[in-house]
């Protein structure tokens, strides 16, 4: 088997990992205005992801680097073509990351409110824009004969792209709220369950529309893995509905797990729809990128494959262990006690 | 329009964001080690003084670490965003070390730093101690891979050109990882990071000692910081000496530019000018202080070595080695001379000054010193903190500006690496956005470091007071 094909799926795996993990971080951040009724509650919410947001975010760095190394043409076209959305994502990630670390460093309400706002915006912007970006990758964008992007920012804000953005925004939001319900206690936990009922419904509607659109589009393009697109979209839809039902029945762990499965399978469906292209061109005279013409040499991919084979399981093991170490709920009492010690 | 030139804007953005990122990187490299050492001493001795020092310097380390993390993502995205032609050309070679960096180093660092921050009351003491060491290891690994990637731009090895010449292809990964430039630049960079962290420790300690606060703890850390700075300086100098030998062999133009030597000189004439007054382009010299033989010694470790001059190198590059690029650069393959000349000198001077201050500081605070340290001396120690940082910054300025006009030496010019599809106004928007964001964050970050540095460590407990049982669960932890 050609290694470039293997790396298409490894890149897919890394982006799926990123969306599953940082996805609920984004949701937790966006939930602050809905669930954070006082400072203790807000700290409870932020502390659910305190120990892990950095490792979750690192997945995008690794995914980006893997993309660079295995498909330089794809990386170059994508990152230079989607310049402004990526700039906004970068600024948002900077604002969000700094806010997690700095908001508790001064005991002033004004200071904290400022960073809270940055957490919300810094979570919502990437949650929306990643969806826009991936929907456009799958749908195709105008690339010229040299694989250079010739569209503008507005080209990306087409109906399918915007819907894709809305789906990731809602999906990450609801998934994050499930996580808050799973990791807190008291009022925040009760509020989160209630919030997820409403946001979950909106997510189901938007996601269903998007997945059907994706399947139709893949069928029109005669995607070779159409059955995969259909199957994974189906699983995603079932898991999404299942997570909503689980939340109704106050099964927090099940709701969160099914939410994670939704993200995994929905993003996988996108990669199935994309295969064997990596960035199709919408121009007649243009030239799209495929797995074959965008990839690195077999030598580079062989070395990278060994590294991935050895280190990815190791990474998954110690990251899994980290989640186990911080498995306990962040209780209101714990934050109150910490607030007391600090003064 | 000249000011919307995407190439110039992209270069300014890369320089600005990279140097800014590098304010935080060396401190992360050094400070994680300092914290790991302090915590190890606490683990071994059980002396609560070391616990307080670990937490105190740990706090400063973390405030700095957050900035390093968020500004680092920009670096990786920027290659594709602003330098897509470069990325297409080198991706097969240059991407691999970045992917290794992510997989082996960043994951390690990011995961274990989280465990360390929040794990005080959740992990057994040894596992918690191991976390900070793992994070330190991750940071150090990442420095190696990124320097190996950079070394390829300085001295491309382990590759061959594709049959149609459109890209460089990796043929020997090991050769790329053991690039002689990387082997010398890595220790040079790591030790300079240690030196910076050492001076931050010394500076903060001096601030407290000057005010008579936390004297017992701060005297220990002052001496620790000053000693570490001196040891690091020696290591930096040894590695730097090795690096300059490699540089002369691989990028002779950079050494010629460092000295602004136009004609090849040998032996006694290969002098090192400490100071020059002249026209900025170096065409005529008004006044200079010169040390004979020194350039020969620096470049070749011998008294009768020769250093090639800019003019001779230009002739060789234009006619023999890189004639295909000669027209694009008008036959001039030299970088901007006043930048390389002064950056090289300032790097050495700032590093040397740091070591000198440390040596004097150790002398006046030695055990048998009879006179109290004069207030102005404390002030010197406090304000010495940014010196090694500035030395690092001008050092990188020299390394990267000295590589010009190449983006990959001998293979691709910087002007050919820029993204053809990104309009100048987009780059201008991002340049402004990063400048504004980074400037405001710098104010916030400096304010926080100052706040916690001046607050000082938790005071040592009264030895007679009743003590809570010393268990893992009773260790105060961090909460956001």
Q: Could you give a quick summary of the protein structure above?
A:
By secondary structure, chain A is mostly helical.
3D structure, described in words:
The complex is a heterodimer of chains A (343) and B (480). Chain A has 343 residues and is an all-alpha fold. Helix content of chain A is 80%, strand content 1%. Chain A has 15 helices and two strands. Chain A has helices at residues 3-30, 32-35, 39-49, 53-70, 72-81, 83-102, 109-139, 153-156, 159-183, 186-220, 226-248, 252-274, 291-294, 298-325, 332-341; strands at 277-279, 289-290. Chain A has a two-stranded antiparallel ribbon. The relative contact order of chain A is 0.15. Chain B has 480 residues and is mainly α. In chain B, the strands form four sheets. A two-stranded antiparallel ribbon of chain B has the order 1-2. In chain B, strand 1 (159-161) and strand 2 (168-170) form a beta hairpin. In chain B, helix 1 (6-45) runs antiparallel to helix 4 (125-154), helix 1 crosses helix 14 and helix 12 runs antiparallel to helix 14. The two termini of chain B are 48 Å apart. At the A-B interface, helix 3, helix 4, helix 5, helix 6 and helix 14 of A face helix 2, helix 3 and helix 15 of B.
């Amino acid at each position: 088997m050609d290694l470039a094909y293997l790396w298409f799926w490894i890149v897919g795996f890394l982006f799926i990992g990123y969306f599953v993990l940082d996805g609920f971080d984004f949701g937790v951040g966006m939930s602050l205005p809905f669930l954070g009724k006082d400072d203790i509650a807000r700290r409870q919410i932020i502390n659910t992801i305190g120990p892990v947001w950095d490792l979750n975010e690192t997945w995008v760095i690794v995914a980006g680097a893997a993309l660079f190394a295995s498909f330089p043409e794809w990386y170059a076209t994508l990152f230079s073509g989607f310049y402004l959305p990526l700039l906004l994502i970068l600024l948002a990630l900077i604002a969000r990351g700094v806010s997690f670390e700095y908001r508790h460093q001064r005991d002033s309400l004004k200071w904290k409110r400022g960073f809270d706002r940055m957490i919300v915006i810094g979570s919502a912007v990437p949650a929306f824009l990643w969806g826009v970006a991936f929907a456009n990758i799958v749908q195709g964008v105008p690339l010229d004969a040299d694989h250079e992007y010739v569209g503008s920012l507005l080209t990306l804000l087409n109906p399918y792209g915007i819907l894709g953005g809305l789906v990731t925004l809602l999906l990450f939001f609801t998934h994050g709220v499930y996580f808050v319900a799973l990791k807190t206690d008291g009022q925040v936990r009760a509020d989160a369950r209630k919030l997820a009922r409403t946001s979950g419904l909106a997510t189901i509607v938007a996601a269903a529309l998007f997945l059907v659109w994706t399947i139709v589009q893949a069928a029109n393009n005669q995607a070779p893995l159409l059955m995969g697109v259909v199957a994974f979209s189906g699983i995603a839809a079932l898991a999404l509905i299942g997570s909503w039902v689980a939340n109704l029945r106050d099964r927090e762990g099940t709701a969160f797990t099914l939410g994670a499965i939704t993200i995994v399978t929905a993003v996988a469906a996108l990669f199935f729809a994309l295969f064997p292209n990596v960035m199709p061109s919408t121009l007649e005279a243009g030239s799209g990128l495929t797995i074959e013409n965008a990839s690195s040499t077999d030598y580079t991919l062989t070395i990278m494959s060994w590294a991935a084979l050895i280190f990815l399981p190791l990474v998954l093991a110690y990251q899994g262990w980290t989640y186990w170490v911080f498995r306990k709920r962040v209780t209101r009492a714990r934050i109150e006690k910490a607030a007391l010690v600090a003064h | 329009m000249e000011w919307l030139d995407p190439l110039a804007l992209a270069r300014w953005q890369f320089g600005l964001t990279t140097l800014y990122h590098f304010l935080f990187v060396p401190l992360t490299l050094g400070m994680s080690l300092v914290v790991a050492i302090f915590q190890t001493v606490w683990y071994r001795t059980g002396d609560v003084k070391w616990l307080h020092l670990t937490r105190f310097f740990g706090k400063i380390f973390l405030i700095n670490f957050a900035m390093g993390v968020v500004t680092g993502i920009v670096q990786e995205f920027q290659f594709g965003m602003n330098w897509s032609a470069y990325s297409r050309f080198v991706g097969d070679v240059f991407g691999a070390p970045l992917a290794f960096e992510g997989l082996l180093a960043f994951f390690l660092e990011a995961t274990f730093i989280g465990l360390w921050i929040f794990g005080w009351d959740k992990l057994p003491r040894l596992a918690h101690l191991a976390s900070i060491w793992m994070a330190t290891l991750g940071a150090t690994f990442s420095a190696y891979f990124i320097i190996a990637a950079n070394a390829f731009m300085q001295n491309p090895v382990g590759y061959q050109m594709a049959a149609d010449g459109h890209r460089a292809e990796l043929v020997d990964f090991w050769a790329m990882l053991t690039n002689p430039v990387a082997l010398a630049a890595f220790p040079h960079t790591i030790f300079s990071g240690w030196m910076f962290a050492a001076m931050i420790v010394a500076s903060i300690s001096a601030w407290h000692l000057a005010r008579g606060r936390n004297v017992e703890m701060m005297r220990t850390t002052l001496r620790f910081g000053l000693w570490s700075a001196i040891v690091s300086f020696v290591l930096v100098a040894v590695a730097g000496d090795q690096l300059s030998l490699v540089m002369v062999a691989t990028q002779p133009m950079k050494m010629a530019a460092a000295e602004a030597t136009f004609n090849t000189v040998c032996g006694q004439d290969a002098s090192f000018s400490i100071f020059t007054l002249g026209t900025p382009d170096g065409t005529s010299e008004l006044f200079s202080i010169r040390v004979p033989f020194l350039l020969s010694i620096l470049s070749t470790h011998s008294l009768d070595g020769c250093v090639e001059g800019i003019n001779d190198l230009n002739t060789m590059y234009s006619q023999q080695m890189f004639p295909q690029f000669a027209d694009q650069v008008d036959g001039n393959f030299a970088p901007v001379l006043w930048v390389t000349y002064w950056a090289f000198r300032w790097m050495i001077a700032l590093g040397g000054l740091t070591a000198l201050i440390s040596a004097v500081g150790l002398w006046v605070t030695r055990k048998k010193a009879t006179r109290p340290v004069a207030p102005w001396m404390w002030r010197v120690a406090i304000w010495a903190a940014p010196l090694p940082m500035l030395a690092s910054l001008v050092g990188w300025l020299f390394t990267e500006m000295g590589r010009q006009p190449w983006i990959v030496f001998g293979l691709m010019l910087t002007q050919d690496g820029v993204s053809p599809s990104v309009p100048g106004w987009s780059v201008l928007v991002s340049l402004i956005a990063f400048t504004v964001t980074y400037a405001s964050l710098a104010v916030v970050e400096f304010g926080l470091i100052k706040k916690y540095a001046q607050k000082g460590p938790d005071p040592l407990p009264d030895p007679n007071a009743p003590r809570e049982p010393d268990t893992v669960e009773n260790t105060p932890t961090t909460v956001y």
